[in-house]
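Here comes a specimen:
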Amino acid sequence: MQPSRRAVLSGLATGGLGVAFGATTAATREDDADEGDETDAADGVNGYDLEDAQRDGYWYFRHNVESVLLGGAGVQFPDRKYADDPDHESFAEAVDDLDAEPDDEEFPVEGLTSLTIAPYETSNPQYVTRPTFSPRPVQATLRWDGDGATTREITPAGAAWFVHAAFELARAFDDLGDPSTEVDGVAEEYSALFELAGWRGLEYAFGDGGVLRDEADEDDEGVLALARSYDPEADETTFEDERAIDYAATVWCLSTVADRADVHPAVETAGIDVEDATDLADSTARAIVDAYDAETIADEGGIANVGLVLSVLGRYGSVGTDDALPDVERFGTDLVASVDDAIDDDGRIATGDEEHQAAVQGAVGQGLDLANDGLGLGLDDDGVDDVLSSLVDDSWSDEDGTFDDERANETIATTVWEAGDIVGGLNAALSRLEGDEVRDVTAAFMDRTVHNSALQRAQLDAAVAPDAAYWLPSPANAGGWFGQAPVFNGAVEYRRDAELWQVVDRAFHASEALYAACQFGWLAANSEGVTAQ
């Protein structure tokens, strides 16, 4: 049996600062082969179970978010281009305040000069120099290849999922108990660091004057308006073609912040606080109700989008105010009715030609579960269970070692967003369905799809289980001149004729990858009895 997440983190953190982050050591890793275009789709290692999958889910969540935080591919706090920026002094003071043990003269990250608070939507996560993780990570060596970024714009969804993930990781370190005594202050310092990035990112994107707000389009009715994207280098904002998923991600993010019971005493929340986040969550939820219906949401991205919005409304239900909740509940009921029309008696959902069948089952199943719980919709439990059972029973292909997209006979293609939808459905299924099948399928998906396909492109040594029979490449040996950050690839494809996986999109798409990372994190949280946020 693998150690629990709590035990793993405690043991690693007391082993040294670099190990807490995930230092690479020769003693624990043999020579890694450079990442190739294709990987063998052999069966997963015998004995890999749900506990292993939850442990890996935690680490892949953490790898993705930490890599973004320190990688520099996005808006920085403070801005590294302007040495005279007064934020530099305030940042240095903030880091000093976060140091739980200032006498040891070693903050967990060496040379920390800035944090990413809003990631570019699409980036190249290859390093520009050989990465250093031991004895502690050196930020200057963890920067991504900025010249390889395909877009330097930030979007509401990308910013929102990053802020949400930062607060979730801060909470994960808080869950260690009393980190100041349990792990020599390392966990407390990391927790505060992620929370600092979360507050700064929230203010930058969605606070008063936030770069992703369309305040000119807001009125006195308390309805927030979002921009489509913002280019920080050109200082240009795009307002056309805003998306439902941007509003959905923002509501989920704000609901998470509004649910914070307290704020780390060393963190300056600047111009926004928990009360502000609650007001903004209400305003953004009203915007979804006013601007969208089931048809427009589905037209934008298929019926899986309707499932995501249902999940968001359910999450919002735990923090929403009496003024906004009645309209949200009615809207949720309307969305459920539209989804119900597409579900057959066995729980299988009718999908369009371009939709991933398993991803739709997962997104809608999780959406029905969370909306029913958060909004008290009174849905038939058997009907919700049927949707999730169809994901596990009908969409999983044990022969192929993955969930069937049912879009083509020769290949099975899965984007990182679709993988997030699938894991979301598995999260709901694990909480609702009895029996071993859902546990076995969840473990098999992590082992035979996420690992074999290289959806997660690299892995730090701290994430390798002591008795693991194999591991992913280390960041330094994951391809490219100097290696790659341990983050998700954009999309993978399984070729049935050759029984091989192929990475078909190597870019890091912030909104998609961070959404998936959060779903992987909730998979891990369920193992500790922590309520998914």
About this structure: The chain has one domain: 5-527. The first strand starts at residue 38 and ends at 40.
